[in-house]
Amino acid sequence: MTTTLVKPETPDAPQTPVAPDSGRRTASVLALAIFEARQLALQIPVVFFALLYLVYTGYELVGRDEGMDAYPVLHDADRATQGGPLLLCIALLACVNRAALLNRRRGVEEQLSVLVMPAPRRTLAHLLSVVPFAAGVALVVGVQFGWSALRPGAVGHGSLAELAVAPLTVLLAGAVGVLLARVLPYPAVPLLFLVGVAIAVALLGGVTRGAHGVQWLWPTVPENGGTPVPGELLGRPAGWHALYLTGLTVLAASVAVMVAGGRTRTLQAVAAVALAATVFGVNGQTPGTSASLQAQRKAEADHPGKFQTCVERDGSRYCAYPDWTGWTADWAGTVRRVRAEAGGDAATTRLTVRQRIEEITDLTTDATLPTSSARDTVTVGTQWGGNRVPEFAVGVARVLVAGSEHDAQSMCDARVVTTIWLALATDPTPADTFRHLRIDDSLAGPASVLTSDGGSMGVTAQQTQVVRELFREPHDEIAARVKSHWPELTSAATTTAEAARLLGVKAPKGTDDCTDA
Q: How wide is the angle at C-alpha 371 spanned by C-alphas 369 and 375, nearest 5°?
């Protein structure tokens, strides 16, 4: 019998490490990222705010079938997608941070450090776990903007950089959450971080008085609520801001991996490029409105005709900025309806409907335009649908009655009654529309009626009473009387009481007091 002796390995014999190939390393990181993403999707704060975001967005979309929302301006609609997921971002920041600290809280971080998936790759997996949520937000943003873009009344052009802000903010929130877990591994840090950011934003805003560069350090700067303006006059550094958010996100992710132990040259190069992109983005978005842009804004506000396209429709001229030429047919329909109720030469008056804007100082203010003194010229704004339609009808009617918007300012007589009746005579619900046009939403007493230039026209209590009486009478009878008594009804010498008698309705008591309107 032959015996073979096997020499045992000495404890000092070198061990040959078995390293998985790059494909397996990638697969393992992706597998962990998918698992962590699934766990995130089960967290109560994430579920709650994701559902809240979806419900809010759905409600907004369903409500855009009528009124001004049926005529969206797309270079405003793209910015409206940015604020919705902010609460979801906060929830993701906190929950990703908690997930990245889970092993430390359970006291198994040291045991995991000896596995083939070390801390840097586990950190990368946590960072990637937010990507599905960013993709989901990008999908919602696409649906939200697409819903507006496909509407028949949509005008303008959206910006891809503006649309990218919401998903980039989600990625940034996830990167910051993981970075905080690696730098300050304590559960209360996310809350303290958010409170600190809020305080810093408030202090910086107060010290710098809302400086442009400070505002744009925040992830979202919607600047919504103002009157829409031509796209070329926005002056928003959307591209630079998208670069800033992208660079900041990649930088935070790179630093998180490096703090976890990643030291590869590739990672360091990525961090350097991300830092440069962040700096370039900040530098590009910091300057405010340039002198050339402000000059262009002033030129387009003071001399709109030089920048507009004009078309002829039904004997009138319609001039609009390039983004709004699609609305001229709707304007013409309103002019045709109002002019059909007028008498005398007004029934064939050639009007010029001109779109006007106020010189832009910021994008959050509603414009009130100076009254035009041009004869037979009607101002139309950059919004349409809802109350903007009867307001424009009032603007058309007052020019047909008084000759110009400037001359209509002094009306306090029968012409006011004639103007309101012309504007609303063929409205399906004239009394309700009249109520909505009045600033106080009433149908009694004096009030101001909104007009298409953003201003208002005074209506006394007596004129209000006569208008209400006219709406109760058959349309054809009043229309015939308006046309037969047109010279008297458009004369400054005719009082409201005399207009009531001419039109066959009860005359109001008392005299007009225009100071109350």
A: 135
